[in-house]
Design goal:
Length: 237
């Protein structure tokens, strides 16, 4: 689970339903990360604390007695869970609401029903990796400095988890966003305008996106900056 999440020393790993603490302790001992375990059984929490002490990682881990649905998890960069499918389903709205875009979630055996994993690994059992996506659905005002002039587009995206589609409205037409990809806070898409492909990539930060746009080929490839500001979000979005 920790390998699939590509855990690094600067990560904070939360294990929801941490049991005897083995995932959190491994995150600290083997990967150099910090960890927090949330477990409803106080006996297992006490066992985890003692185990962390024996492993010499008690300064890098914390174990909390409590319900995973009440846990404050907003500072996590990685979340792991080995829970029944009914609990995983109920946790989905909390995870999407509480976690920052780019946070990695790894589910053991039981993944989300509708949310497609970014990666699925089967090694004896099933492991599912999800990357919390930024919220990009709605309309944006995109400004970019292109070869002939600064261009302004009204960009619109529809979104279902990390899957996005849409395009830019221009005078007299619509430019589809080809190869639209969203991974955490990173977004990329291609607009074909005036017989030239413009490859946009950027970082979503709330109601703003900033990044680079590239066009041309080989040594003649050029690039510039672009930014977008959110205009509206879908009803209920």
């Amino acid at each position: 689970m920790l390998r699939l999440a590509a855990v690094q020393p600067n990560d904070l790993v939360y294990d929801l339903g941490s049991g005897d603490g083995r995932v959190v302790i491994s995150a600290a001992r083997d990967w150099g990360a910090r960890g927090v375990g949330v477990e409803i059984d106080p006996k297992l929490v006490a066992e985890s604390v003692e185990r962390a002490r024996r492993e010499g990682v008690e300064q890098r881990v914390t174990f909390r007695t409590g319900d995973v649905f009440d846990a404050k998890i907003g500072d996590a960069t990685v979340v792991t869970m080995y829970l029944l499918s009914s609990l995983v389903h109920r946790l989905e709205p909390k995870l999407l609401a509480d976690l920052k875009p780019g946070t990695r979630i790894v589910a053991h055996d039981y993944g989300f029903a509708e949310w497609k994993p970014d990666r699925h690994v089967q090694i004896s059992k099933n492991f599912y990796l999800y990357v919390v996506p930024a919220h990009v659905a709605g309309k944006w005002r995109l400004t970019s400095a292109l070869p002939t002039s600064t261009r302004d587009y009204e960009l619109e995206f529809q979104q279902r988890y990390q899957e996005i589609k849409g395009g830019a409205r221009v005078a007299g037409g619509f430019l589809p966003a080809f190869e639209a990809l969203l991974s955490g806070e990173r977004i990329a898409f291609v607009l074909l305008d005036d017989d030239m492909s413009y490859r946009y990539d950027g970082r979503v930060a709330g109601d703003a996106i900033e990044g680079r746009v590239r066009w041309g080929y080989g040594p003649r490839q050029q690039e510039s900056t672009w930014r977008a500001k959110r205009i509206t979000t879908p009803a209920g979005g």
